[in-house]
Amino acid sequence: MSETTLWLYDLTAPQLAEAKVILRTLLRPTDEDTALLHIIDMPDKSRRYDLCLTLDQNLSESADVVAVLARSLNCPFECTNFSASGALWRHLEGLGLHHVGLDDFGSPVLSEPVLQEAIAASRGSGLALAASIRLNLGSHYDDVLEGYRLRSGEAKTRSISLAS
Q: Which of 19, 74, 133, 145 is most buried as measured by Cβ atoms within 10 A of its Cβ?
C-alpha cells in the first residue's frame, strides 16, 4: 500500500454531500477515518468547500477512485499516489481528466514515446517543444488549481468523519 492524497475543490453544499456518499461507497471508511474540510466564505455570502483526504491505497485503487469521481462529480480535483511508480491525476471541468506518472521523488515523468512525439511535433522550435512538454505534464491544470490551493490554505478548516 502507499499514501494517496485526494483534494476535491470548489464544492457546493449539495456537491459536498454527494462527494461524501461517493467516498463512503468507494472507501468504506471506519469512524476513525477523517477528512479535512476547508470552508470558504464567498463574497456573495455563499459557501464553497474543499475536501482533503489521505488514503492508504495502491495505484490501482487510486485509479479506480479517480475514474468514479471524474464520471460522477463536476468539480475540480487532484489525486496523487505516492507509490514506487506513482501517479498524479487532475480533473477540471471543460478539460477533463489528466494523468501523468511520478518518479520515486514525486516528480512528473514523461515516457520516451511522449517525448519523441513532442520533439517531432516541435519541428526544431524550442518554444513549440517547451509548450508540448508543458501540455503533456499538465501544467495548464496546475495553473488553474493553484488558485484553489491558495484559497484553501486561507480557509477555516475542520476535521469531519467520512463514515457518517
A: 19
∠ Cα 85 6 57 (to 5°): 50
What is the Cα–Cα distance from 116 to 162, expressed in whole angstroms?
44
The strand order across the sheet containing 156-161 reads 108-109, 96-102, 87-92, 77-81, 2-11, 47-57, 34-41, 156-161
**Domains plus CATH for the chain?**
2-108+139-161 (3.30.70)
Single-letter amino acid code for the residue at 110? L
Element (H, E) at 49: strand 47-57
Q: What is the pLDDT of residues 28-58, one digit of tens each?
A: 877 777 899 999 999 999 999 999 998 888 8
